[in-house]
Amino acid sequence: MLGLGTIANSGAIVVGALCGVLLKKGLPQRWQETMMQAIAFCIVIIGVQMALKTTNIVITIFSLVIGAIIGESIDIDELMRRFSLWVGNKVARSESVAAEIAKGFVNASILFCTGAMAIVGSIQDGLAGDYTTLFAKATLDGLISLIMAANLGIGVALSAVSVAVYQGSITLMAGAIEGMLSQQILAELTAAGGIMIMAIGTNMLNLTKVRIANLLPGIIVSVVLAKYFL
Question: What is the Rg, in whole angstroms, of the alpha carbon atoms belonging to the chain?
C-alpha cells in the first residue's frame, strides 16, 4: 500500500503524544535523558546500516560535499525554521493555551520533518514499497513525541499533520519516477541519507551540531552522480 509508512509514522506520533499528555506531571528528567540517548544510539545504528550500502564511497563523499555547498548557499536549515516559526505564530495569536500548542507543534515538526530519514524512507516507500525505514522512524518518533508531549503538551500531536503532508508528498513524487532509478542509484541515495541519519543521532547526543537540513541536497546529487558514473 503506497504511503503506509507515512500513515504509520503519523499515527505513532499521535499515539505517543496522547500518551505523553496523560503523564501530566511529565517524565522524570533522568528518564527523559536516558530514553533520548537510547533513541539517539538506535538512530546512529540505522544510519550506519544504510551508509554501508554504498558501492562507491567516492560518490557518497562528493554527494555530501556538493550537497553541503548547495544547502549552505540556500540555507535550507534556516528557511525551514523560519517557516515552522511562522506557522507557530499564526496559531499562537489567540490565547496563552494556543501559544503552548504552537510551541509543541513547531518544535516537533522541525524534529520530525527535517531529518534525512523522512526523505529517504518516503522515497523507498514510493519507489519500492519498502516501509522499513519509515516503520523504524515511526517507532522512534512515537517515543520522542511521548517525551516531548509530556512537557510541551498536545501541540506535539499536531506535527503528525506536517509529517503526513511532507512525507506523503515525497512518496507520491517518488512513485511518479518509478523505473527510472536503478538499484545502484538507490544504494547510493540510501548511503548518502544514512550518513545524514547518523548525524541526527550524534546531534541528539550533543556530540555534533550538524545543520542536517543543509545536507539534504546531497541526496539529489547522489542520484545524479550515480546515474552518470556507475
Answer: 18
Supply 133's cell numbers. 525505514
With a CB cutoff of 8 Å and minimum separation 6, the contacts of 162 are: 105, 109, 112, 113
Amino acid, res. 125: D
Q: How many CA atoms lie within 13 A of 39 on its CB side?
A: 21
For the chain, percent of residues with pLDDT exceeding 70? 87
> Is residue 55 within 8 Å of residue 205, measured between CB atoms?
no
Long-range contacts of the stretch 175-184 (C-beta < 8 A, 24+): 175/2, 175/126, 175/127, 177/127, 178/126, 178/127, 181/127, 181/223, 182/226, 182/230, 184/55, 184/226, 184/230
Q: Say how far apart CA 79 and CA 91 lie, in whole Å.
A: 19
pLDDT tens per residue, range 122-161? 888 888 888 888 999 999 899 889 888 887 778 888 889 8
Cβ-Cβ contacts under 8 Å for 133 (sequence gap 6 or more): 5, 46, 50, 117, 120, 121, 124
Mean pLDDT of 34-41: 83
Distance CA 118, CA 115 (A): 6
- Contact yes or no for 8/138 (Cβ under 8 A): yes
Contacts with 228 (C-beta within 8 Å, 6 or more apart), sequence order: none
Q: Closest by alpha carbon to 14, among 138, 190, 172, 179? A: 138
In whole angstroms, what is the distance from residue 106 CA to residue 109 CA? 5
